[in-house]
Amino acid sequence: MNVALLAIIMVSSCSLKAMNDLSLSPLKNPSVDSLHHSGDGGSEKDELTGSSNSCGLDNSPRRRYRSYSNESLSKISNNSFTASALLMTLRGEHYYRGVPDKQDYIAAFACFKHGSNQTGDGRAAAWSNFYLGEMFYLGRGVSRDNDIAHAFWKLAVKQHYDPVVSAKAAAWVGQLYYKVGMATSEPSVKNKLLQAAFSSFRYVINNPYDEDALAIANLRIGMLYEDGEGTACDYASSQDHYKKAAQQKAHYAVSLTATLCLCDMAYAAKDYRLALQYCTPVAEQQLDQAHAAKAKLRRGVLYLENRYGIKRDVRRAYLDLHDVAHQMDDLDAAAKAILELEELHRT
């Protein structure tokens, strides 16, 4: 269990008061003056998207600068102190994302470090802090460290210079609490972490400036309401948030996950026709084969079970389960499909 992270939650009394009461004191010093590049620490994929670039600044209000090369940005930044922080942050984006220049995490870290230390441009500092948090969370060019990632994301939320970056950072603070909390076996500790996650996601929903962050927040709050973790169990609220996440196509993987959650809720409520309606479009889409495998597994089971409202169809069930068993995008789904096929052969 991450003791430093738990200490933060206990100090905050779990309400977070719109994310501003959370103390950073138990964390490692977030000042980038004391941070050094320490080699490639590996990369951690987002558990929702399977992507290693899920925190990207795709809808940055500064996209008009994207056509500049780092050489031209360097010339501009050397001629103006006011523009220096913002342009260094943009140069960091270029290096970090490899567009339009070659990807270079060491150079990106140096640029974000510079942007984070600038007090004259709070907006640039907020984005730099967000990216530094992402680098430490994913282990890109630095050793992976959730405490330092949390510290930088909290700074990005508290700076309030750009509502988009505040929403993004708050969503990933919530993701961090959720991930650590769900991996914790101690009930009281788990509850405090998930209460903090709930408050973080609620902040994003109350400040809906970024569609990607909003989709993640709605999905996670739906999960917390459904499981009664970090808040009281409320199936109606859970379903409402799942529906909102499913409708937010800005984050495609989250939309698919939310749709499958609605399918599972319908199945648990014995509304099998509705469950089939939810899982079918996910099974038929071609852009995300891992989610398609999960949906086909559900649909195959529904056709096998001969539940009320769905006529048993062994052929369709076999085709779905056979597809899932022979794909490599979701090995857990493949294993379950193989078990279902073995049972089908026995009958």
Q: Are there runs of 5+ residues with pLDDT below 50, and where?
A: 1-47, 49-69, 75-82
Major sheet characteristics: none
Q: If you average the pLDDT, what whole number results?
A: 79
User: Outline, from the CA principal axes?
Assistant: elongated
List the helices and strands and how they pair.
Elements lengths: L2 H10 L57 H9 L2 H17 L7 H12 L5 H17 L7 H14 L3 H20 L4 H20 L4 H17 L7 H13 L4 H17 L3 H13 L4 H17 L8 H12 L5 H16 L1
Explain this structure.
The N and C termini lie far apart (46 Å). With 347 residues, this protein is mainly alpha-helical. It is elongated. Helix 5 packs parallel to helix 7 and helix 7 runs antiparallel to helix 8. The protein contains 15 helices and no strands.
In short:
With 347 residues, the chain is mainly α.
Features:
0% strand, mainly alpha, 347 residues
